[in-house]
Amino acid sequence: MAEWRRLLEDLGYRDVETLLNSGNAVFESPGRSTRNHGEAIRLALQKSLGLEVPVIVKSAAELAAIQEENTLAREAPDPTRLLVAFTAEPADLQSLAGLAALAVPPERFLLGRHAAYLWCPAGILESQVAESLLGKAGRAATTRNWATVTKIRALLDR
Question: pTM of the full predicted structure?
Answer without folding.
Answer: 0.91
